[in-house]
Specification:
Blueprint: E1 3-6, E2 19-20, E3 27-28, E4 30-34, E5 41-44, H1 50-57, E6 72-78, H2 93-102, E7 108-112, H3 125-141, E8 148-151, H4 155-164, E9 168-171, H5 181-188, E10 192-195, H6 213-230, E11 238-241, H7 250-258, E12 271-272, H8 278-284, H9 293-305, E13 310-313, H10 316-331
Length: 335
Amino acid sequence: MDYIRPIVMTDPARPPGALTLGGGWCWFDRVEVLRRGSAPQIVPAQDLDAAQRARLTGPRARFGGVDLTAPRIMGILNVTPDSFSDGGRFTGPAAALAQVQAMAGADILDIGGESTRPGAQIVDPADETERTAPVIAAIRAAGIATPISIDTRKAAVARAAFAAGAGIVNDVAALSYDADMAGFVARADAPVILMHAQGTPQTMQLDPRYDDVVLDVYDFLAARIDAAMAAGIARPRIAIDPGIGFGKTITHNLALLQRIALFHSLGCPILLGASRKKFIGTISGTDAAGARMPGSLAVALAGIAQGVQMVRVHDVAETCAAVALWQALTKGDYP
Protein backbone atom coordinates (compact mmCIF):
# COMPACT_ATOMS: atom_id res chain seq x y z
CA MET A 1 0.00 0.00 0.00
CA ASP A 2 1.19 3.50 -0.84
CA TYR A 3 0.87 6.28 1.74
CA ILE A 4 0.97 9.75 0.21
CA ARG A 5 2.42 12.67 2.17
CA PRO A 6 2.31 16.08 0.50
CA ILE A 7 5.54 18.01 0.93
CA VAL A 8 3.84 21.15 2.15
CA MET A 9 4.99 24.65 1.30
CA THR A 10 3.92 28.19 2.13
CA ASP A 11 6.68 29.91 0.18
CA PRO A 12 5.53 32.92 -1.90
CA ALA A 13 7.41 31.55 -4.92
CA ARG A 14 4.73 29.07 -5.94
CA PRO A 15 5.50 27.25 -9.22
CA PRO A 16 2.91 26.83 -11.96
CA GLY A 17 0.92 23.64 -11.53
CA ALA A 18 1.33 23.46 -7.74
CA LEU A 19 -1.75 22.17 -5.93
CA THR A 20 -3.58 23.82 -3.05
CA LEU A 21 -3.77 21.62 0.05
CA GLY A 22 -7.31 21.03 1.30
CA GLY A 23 -8.58 24.39 0.08
CA GLY A 24 -6.35 26.09 2.65
CA TRP A 25 -3.21 28.21 2.88
CA CYS A 26 -0.54 25.70 1.81
CA TRP A 27 0.54 24.28 -1.54
CA PHE A 28 2.55 21.32 -2.76
CA ASP A 29 4.09 20.17 -6.02
CA ARG A 30 5.77 16.99 -4.74
CA VAL A 31 4.72 14.15 -2.49
CA GLU A 32 6.58 11.58 -0.45
CA VAL A 33 5.39 8.04 -1.15
CA LEU A 34 5.79 5.85 1.92
CA ARG A 35 5.60 2.04 1.87
CA ARG A 36 6.17 -0.46 4.63
CA GLY A 37 9.54 -2.12 4.24
CA SER A 38 10.72 0.23 1.48
CA ALA A 39 12.61 3.48 1.27
CA PRO A 40 10.44 6.59 0.73
CA GLN A 41 10.23 8.08 -2.76
CA ILE A 42 9.69 11.67 -3.84
CA VAL A 43 7.46 12.05 -6.90
CA PRO A 44 5.78 15.01 -8.62
CA ALA A 45 2.28 15.81 -7.43
CA GLN A 46 1.17 15.62 -11.05
CA ASP A 47 1.74 11.84 -10.87
CA LEU A 48 -1.07 11.37 -8.34
CA ASP A 49 -4.16 9.55 -9.52
CA ALA A 50 -7.54 11.29 -9.41
CA ALA A 51 -8.60 9.80 -6.06
CA GLN A 52 -5.30 10.68 -4.33
CA ARG A 53 -5.43 14.20 -5.70
CA ALA A 54 -9.04 14.69 -4.61
CA ARG A 55 -8.31 13.61 -1.02
CA LEU A 56 -5.43 16.08 -0.77
CA THR A 57 -6.86 19.06 -2.58
CA GLY A 58 -10.58 18.92 -1.83
CA PRO A 59 -11.64 21.92 0.28
CA ARG A 60 -12.54 20.87 3.82
CA ALA A 61 -16.13 21.54 4.84
CA ARG A 62 -16.97 23.89 7.67
CA PHE A 63 -16.55 22.01 10.93
CA GLY A 64 -19.13 22.77 13.59
CA GLY A 65 -19.80 26.02 11.76
CA VAL A 66 -16.10 26.94 11.65
CA ASP A 67 -14.51 27.80 8.30
CA LEU A 68 -11.24 25.90 7.78
CA THR A 69 -9.65 27.99 5.05
CA ALA A 70 -7.40 29.53 7.74
CA PRO A 71 -5.84 28.03 10.90
CA ARG A 72 -8.33 27.71 13.77
CA ILE A 73 -7.74 27.64 17.51
CA MET A 74 -9.52 25.33 19.92
CA GLY A 75 -9.31 26.55 23.51
CA ILE A 76 -9.03 23.92 26.25
CA LEU A 77 -11.28 24.13 29.29
CA ASN A 78 -10.75 21.24 31.68
CA VAL A 79 -13.36 21.19 34.44
CA THR A 80 -11.58 18.36 36.22
CA PRO A 81 -9.75 18.07 39.53
CA ASP A 82 -6.82 16.13 38.06
CA SER A 83 -5.86 17.23 34.54
CA PHE A 84 -2.09 17.33 34.09
CA SER A 85 -1.80 21.09 33.52
CA ASP A 86 -4.81 22.89 35.01
CA GLY A 87 -6.66 20.35 37.11
CA GLY A 88 -8.86 21.92 39.78
CA ARG A 89 -8.55 25.49 38.48
CA PHE A 90 -11.85 25.79 36.61
CA THR A 91 -14.30 23.53 38.39
CA GLY A 92 -17.76 25.05 38.69
CA PRO A 93 -19.60 27.35 36.27
CA ALA A 94 -18.32 30.66 37.65
CA ALA A 95 -14.61 29.82 37.41
CA ALA A 96 -15.11 28.11 34.08
CA LEU A 97 -17.01 31.07 32.64
CA ALA A 98 -14.26 33.44 33.73
CA GLN A 99 -11.72 31.27 31.92
CA VAL A 100 -13.85 31.18 28.77
CA GLN A 101 -13.98 34.97 28.80
CA ALA A 102 -10.18 34.98 29.13
CA MET A 103 -9.96 32.76 26.04
CA ALA A 104 -11.48 35.36 23.72
CA GLY A 105 -10.31 34.60 20.20
CA ALA A 106 -10.80 30.86 20.38
CA ASP A 107 -12.74 29.51 17.39
CA ILE A 108 -13.94 26.46 19.35
CA LEU A 109 -14.14 25.78 23.09
CA ASP A 110 -13.28 22.19 24.09
CA ILE A 111 -14.75 21.26 27.46
CA GLY A 112 -13.77 18.09 29.26
CA GLY A 113 -14.79 16.56 32.56
CA GLU A 114 -12.56 13.48 32.59
CA SER A 115 -8.79 13.65 32.62
CA THR A 116 -7.12 11.32 30.14
CA ARG A 117 -3.57 12.05 31.29
CA PRO A 118 -1.35 8.98 31.84
CA GLY A 119 -2.56 7.07 34.90
CA ALA A 120 -5.92 8.83 35.13
CA GLN A 121 -8.88 6.83 36.38
CA ILE A 122 -12.25 6.43 34.67
CA VAL A 123 -14.88 8.94 35.80
CA ASP A 124 -18.50 7.84 36.25
CA PRO A 125 -20.67 9.30 33.46
CA ALA A 126 -22.97 10.98 35.98
CA ASP A 127 -20.02 12.75 37.62
CA GLU A 128 -18.57 13.74 34.26
CA THR A 129 -21.94 15.14 33.20
CA GLU A 130 -22.28 17.07 36.44
CA ARG A 131 -18.92 18.70 35.78
CA THR A 132 -19.54 19.64 32.14
CA ALA A 133 -23.23 20.26 31.37
CA PRO A 134 -23.74 23.13 33.86
CA VAL A 135 -20.61 24.85 32.55
CA ILE A 136 -21.82 24.61 28.96
CA ALA A 137 -25.23 25.93 30.00
CA ALA A 138 -23.59 28.85 31.81
CA ILE A 139 -21.54 29.72 28.71
CA ARG A 140 -24.64 29.80 26.58
CA ALA A 141 -26.61 31.74 29.22
CA ALA A 142 -23.85 34.36 29.16
CA GLY A 143 -24.54 34.90 25.46
CA ILE A 144 -21.29 33.32 24.25
CA ALA A 145 -21.99 31.70 20.87
CA THR A 146 -18.56 30.16 20.20
CA PRO A 147 -18.93 26.54 19.03
CA ILE A 148 -18.40 24.08 21.89
CA SER A 149 -16.98 20.57 21.66
CA ILE A 150 -17.45 18.07 24.46
CA ASP A 151 -14.28 16.11 25.16
CA THR A 152 -15.69 12.74 26.19
CA ARG A 153 -15.71 9.03 25.37
CA LYS A 154 -19.24 8.54 26.70
CA ALA A 155 -22.53 8.96 24.85
CA ALA A 156 -24.51 9.92 27.98
CA VAL A 157 -22.09 12.76 28.68
CA ALA A 158 -22.21 13.93 25.06
CA ARG A 159 -26.00 13.81 25.04
CA ALA A 160 -26.24 16.03 28.12
CA ALA A 161 -23.60 18.39 26.73
CA PHE A 162 -25.54 18.80 23.49
CA ALA A 163 -28.72 19.48 25.44
CA ALA A 164 -26.82 22.25 27.25
CA GLY A 165 -25.45 23.82 24.05
CA ALA A 166 -22.46 21.84 22.74
CA GLY A 167 -22.34 20.81 19.09
CA ILE A 168 -19.12 18.84 18.47
CA VAL A 169 -17.89 15.53 19.96
CA ASN A 170 -14.15 15.18 20.63
CA ASP A 171 -13.62 11.48 21.37
CA VAL A 172 -10.14 10.38 22.42
CA ALA A 173 -11.24 6.77 21.87
CA ALA A 174 -12.40 7.40 18.28
CA LEU A 175 -15.90 5.99 19.01
CA SER A 176 -14.49 2.70 20.31
CA TYR A 177 -15.07 3.11 24.07
CA ASP A 178 -18.87 3.44 24.22
CA ALA A 179 -20.95 1.36 21.81
CA ASP A 180 -23.65 4.05 21.87
CA MET A 181 -21.41 6.96 20.88
CA ALA A 182 -21.36 6.45 17.11
CA GLY A 183 -25.13 6.17 17.01
CA PHE A 184 -25.55 9.33 19.04
CA VAL A 185 -23.21 11.29 16.75
CA ALA A 186 -24.97 9.97 13.64
CA ARG A 187 -28.47 10.77 14.94
CA ALA A 188 -27.36 14.25 16.00
CA ASP A 189 -25.69 14.79 12.61
CA ALA A 190 -22.83 16.17 14.66
CA PRO A 191 -19.17 16.78 13.78
CA VAL A 192 -16.81 14.37 15.53
CA ILE A 193 -13.06 14.28 16.15
CA LEU A 194 -11.53 10.79 16.08
CA MET A 195 -8.26 10.52 17.99
CA HIS A 196 -5.65 7.77 18.05
CA ALA A 197 -4.53 6.33 21.37
CA GLN A 198 -2.64 3.15 22.11
CA GLY A 199 -4.06 1.54 25.24
CA THR A 200 -5.98 3.33 27.98
CA PRO A 201 -4.94 6.26 30.18
CA GLN A 202 -3.96 3.67 32.79
CA THR A 203 -1.64 1.76 30.41
CA MET A 204 -0.79 3.95 27.42
CA GLN A 205 2.65 5.13 28.55
CA LEU A 206 3.83 1.70 29.71
CA ASP A 207 6.40 1.01 26.97
CA PRO A 208 4.36 1.90 23.86
CA ARG A 209 5.58 0.17 20.68
CA TYR A 210 4.81 0.42 16.95
CA ASP A 211 6.01 -1.21 13.76
CA ASP A 212 5.97 2.24 12.14
CA VAL A 213 4.26 4.85 14.30
CA VAL A 214 3.26 7.16 11.44
CA LEU A 215 1.80 4.44 9.26
CA ASP A 216 0.26 2.54 12.18
CA VAL A 217 -1.57 5.65 13.39
CA TYR A 218 -2.67 6.39 9.82
CA ASP A 219 -4.11 2.88 9.41
CA PHE A 220 -5.93 3.14 12.74
CA LEU A 221 -7.53 6.45 11.83
CA ALA A 222 -8.46 5.22 8.35
CA ALA A 223 -10.22 2.24 9.95
CA ARG A 224 -12.04 4.45 12.47
CA ILE A 225 -13.20 6.78 9.68
CA ASP A 226 -14.60 3.75 7.88
CA ALA A 227 -16.35 2.61 11.08
CA ALA A 228 -17.82 6.07 11.64
CA MET A 229 -19.10 6.25 8.09
CA ALA A 230 -20.60 2.76 8.40
CA ALA A 231 -22.47 4.04 11.47
CA GLY A 232 -24.01 6.83 9.39
CA ILE A 233 -21.55 9.69 10.00
CA ALA A 234 -20.69 11.52 6.78
CA ARG A 235 -17.01 12.04 6.00
CA PRO A 236 -17.35 15.87 5.95
CA ARG A 237 -18.43 15.59 9.61
CA ILE A 238 -15.21 13.83 10.62
CA ALA A 239 -11.89 15.31 11.77
CA ILE A 240 -8.89 13.30 12.92
CA ASP A 241 -6.25 13.71 15.62
CA PRO A 242 -3.03 11.61 15.67
CA GLY A 243 -3.09 11.69 19.48
CA ILE A 244 0.25 13.22 20.42
CA GLY A 245 1.28 11.83 23.82
CA PHE A 246 -1.40 9.13 23.94
CA GLY A 247 0.65 5.94 23.98
CA LYS A 248 3.73 7.51 22.41
CA THR A 249 7.34 8.12 23.36
CA ILE A 250 9.14 11.36 22.54
CA THR A 251 10.52 9.69 19.41
CA HIS A 252 7.00 8.64 18.36
CA ASN A 253 5.64 12.16 18.94
CA LEU A 254 8.41 13.76 16.89
CA ALA A 255 7.96 11.28 14.03
CA LEU A 256 4.24 12.09 13.89
CA LEU A 257 4.85 15.82 14.00
CA GLN A 258 7.51 15.67 11.27
CA ARG A 259 5.14 13.85 8.90
CA ILE A 260 1.76 15.05 10.14
CA ALA A 261 0.94 16.19 6.60
CA LEU A 262 0.48 12.51 5.71
CA PHE A 263 -2.90 12.60 7.46
CA HIS A 264 -4.27 15.03 4.86
CA SER A 265 -4.50 11.95 2.64
CA LEU A 266 -7.42 10.80 4.78
CA GLY A 267 -9.47 13.63 3.30
CA CYS A 268 -10.50 15.03 6.70
CA PRO A 269 -9.47 18.08 8.73
CA ILE A 270 -6.61 17.53 11.17
CA LEU A 271 -6.64 18.57 14.82
CA LEU A 272 -3.29 18.81 16.60
CA GLY A 273 -3.37 18.65 20.40
CA ALA A 274 0.13 18.95 21.83
CA SER A 275 -0.24 21.90 24.19
CA ARG A 276 1.93 21.74 27.33
CA LYS A 277 2.56 18.01 26.95
CA LYS A 278 5.41 16.24 28.65
CA PHE A 279 7.60 15.83 25.56
CA ILE A 280 7.62 19.64 25.18
CA GLY A 281 8.80 19.97 28.77
CA THR A 282 11.47 17.30 28.33
CA ILE A 283 12.90 18.80 25.14
CA SER A 284 12.75 22.39 26.40
CA GLY A 285 13.84 21.61 29.96
CA THR A 286 10.58 22.94 31.39
CA ASP A 287 9.30 20.87 34.28
CA ALA A 288 6.16 22.85 35.13
CA ALA A 289 3.36 22.21 32.63
CA GLY A 290 2.10 25.78 32.95
CA ALA A 291 5.48 27.12 31.81
CA ARG A 292 5.50 25.21 28.50
CA MET A 293 3.73 27.88 26.47
CA PRO A 294 6.76 28.80 24.28
CA GLY A 295 7.33 25.19 23.28
CA SER A 296 3.61 24.70 22.70
CA LEU A 297 3.59 27.69 20.34
CA ALA A 298 6.52 26.23 18.40
CA VAL A 299 4.71 22.92 17.92
CA ALA A 300 1.41 24.59 16.97
CA LEU A 301 3.08 26.76 14.32
CA ALA A 302 5.00 23.76 12.95
CA GLY A 303 1.68 21.95 12.52
CA ILE A 304 0.01 24.94 10.89
CA ALA A 305 2.95 25.19 8.46
CA GLN A 306 2.02 21.65 7.38
CA GLY A 307 -1.61 22.63 6.83
CA VAL A 308 -3.08 21.43 10.13
CA GLN A 309 -6.48 23.11 10.27
CA MET A 310 -7.06 23.17 14.06
CA VAL A 311 -4.74 23.40 17.05
CA ARG A 312 -5.98 22.58 20.54
CA VAL A 313 -4.26 24.82 23.10
CA HIS A 314 -4.32 26.07 26.68
CA ASP A 315 -2.73 29.46 25.90
CA VAL A 316 -5.32 30.95 23.57
CA ALA A 317 -4.31 34.61 23.53
CA GLU A 318 -0.65 33.81 22.95
CA THR A 319 -1.49 31.31 20.21
CA CYS A 320 -3.80 33.82 18.50
CA ALA A 321 -0.97 36.36 18.48
CA ALA A 322 1.57 33.86 17.17
CA VAL A 323 -0.76 32.66 14.40
CA ALA A 324 -1.55 36.25 13.38
CA LEU A 325 2.15 37.01 12.97
CA TRP A 326 2.76 33.72 11.15
CA GLN A 327 -0.06 34.48 8.72
CA ALA A 328 1.19 38.02 8.08
CA LEU A 329 4.73 36.76 7.41
CA THR A 330 3.46 33.96 5.17
CA LYS A 331 1.21 36.23 3.11
CA GLY A 332 3.63 39.14 3.14
CA ASP A 333 0.92 41.67 3.88
CA TYR A 334 -1.45 42.83 6.57
CA PRO A 335 -5.14 43.52 5.92
